[in-house]
UniProtKB/TrEMBL annotation:
Presence of the UniProt keyword Flavoprotein in the record: no
UniProt name for this protein: Uncharacterized protein
Compositionally biased intervals (Polar residues): 268-282
Spans through the membrane: 94-114
InterPro entries in alphabetical order: ARM-type_fold (IPR016024), RELCH (IPR040362)
Length: 325
């Protein structure tokens, strides 16, 4: 590979892979339905066939450039082909969107999805979902949705579930408002994808653990000041998808989710009603409505704290009350 990079060796088939094959594959990906699984399998087969070094120094940089990464390391590619590789970078808003819709899912699942790239996939996904939204130059809502759509494709493959949920939890506990909104969106995406996947009766325990983890995330998000739009479009649908598989839900979690749905639905309906007259008094006055909203918020926070107390208590079942002297 180093000899080819320095131009001291001719290897037509080797160069054809990264000069012509990948370029044509990227064009094909943009013409096929997004998240074409046959292309993912092909890319995984290439990395398995050519090895980790090829994946790291050839295949990965080509795909990073194709999704708009300016820092892709092209050192191991022949300098003569650098202009062609750099030409794969999207130059317009439409091209960038197409790359996010069609190429990013392949980068995540087909290139970084290789077993040897687990850590790099985790870091790359964390950068997309967490770090990019905590900087001043945040990606647009449009790009966020496309990133989440690419992650949804990644959710199809069970080997990535723990990694994705770990990043989701980072987003849940972060204090950044934008991250919490994206966490709700991602939660809805993951639950919808997993609930749509068929599962056998032999993995009930695994599904129960997974769904209970989702419940913890939902209850943590419920204790925050999410906008009514985020609640209506993402949080409530995520809960409804969990209810499709009620046998896997812990009874305490199920009851808590039912309360969340009831209170959040009522709050959402309240915001759609025309605001009352400033002279209105009594239970429907602006002050009363604000007080009720604050009361609901306080109860949500207490529910979240109470679940933490229950978990702590469960860890110390033998704890005895202090003796009076």
């Amino acid at each position: 590979m180093q000899l080819d990079r320095r131009g001291r060796s001719e290897w037509p088939m080797f160069e054809w892979m990264h000069v012509d094959c990948f370029a044509n594959l990227l064009q094909l990906a943009c013409m096929l339905p997004p998240k074409e699984d046959h292309l993912r399998k092909f890319l995984l087969a290439v990395s398995e066939r050519f090895g980790s070094s090829y994946l790291t120094h050839i295949e990965l940089p080509v795909f990073l450039v194709a999704v708009g990464d300016d820092e892709a390391d092209l050192r191991f590619l022949p300098s003569a082909v650098h202009p062609r590789i750099k030409g794969l970078k999207p130059r317009t808003a439409v091209a960038s969107r197409l790359a996010a819709l069609c190429i990013l899912p392949l980068l995540l699942a087909g290139v970084l999805g290789a077993p040897s790239k687990h850590e790099e996939l985790t870091n790359f996904l964390r950068q997309l979902l967490v770090e990019s939204n905590t900087k001043e130059n945040q990606s647009s809502e449009h790009n966020n949705n496309e990133v989440l759509d690419a992650v949804r494709f990644l959710c199809i493959f069970e080997e990535h579930h723990n990694m994705i949920f770990g990043i989701l939890w980072e987003m849940v506990v972060d204090s950044t408002g934008e991250l919490k909104i994206n966490a709700v969106k991602l939660l809805k995406t993951i639950i919808f994808q997993l609930s749509a996947s068929p599962s056998s009766s032999t993995d009930v325990i695994r599904r129960r653990d997974r769904d209970n983890a989702f419940c913890e995330a939902i209850r943590a998000l419920d204790a925050t000041d999410l906008s009514q739009t985020s609640v209506r479009e993402y949080l409530l649908p995520a809960i409804q998808n969990l209810f499709k598989d009620p046998d896997t839900l812990d009874p305490a979690h199920k009851e808590a989710l039912e309360i969340i749905v009831k209170e959040r639905s009522e709050a959402t309906e309240t915001t759609t009603v025309a605001p009352p007259s400033p002279t209105l008094q009594g239970a429907d006055s602006p002050k009363a409505v604000a007080a009720a909203a604050e009361d609901n918020r306080f109860r949500r926070i207490m529910r979240g704290n109470f679940s933490e107390m229950l978990r702590s208590k469960a860890k110390n079942p033998d704890e005895t009350p202090p003796q009076n002297h």
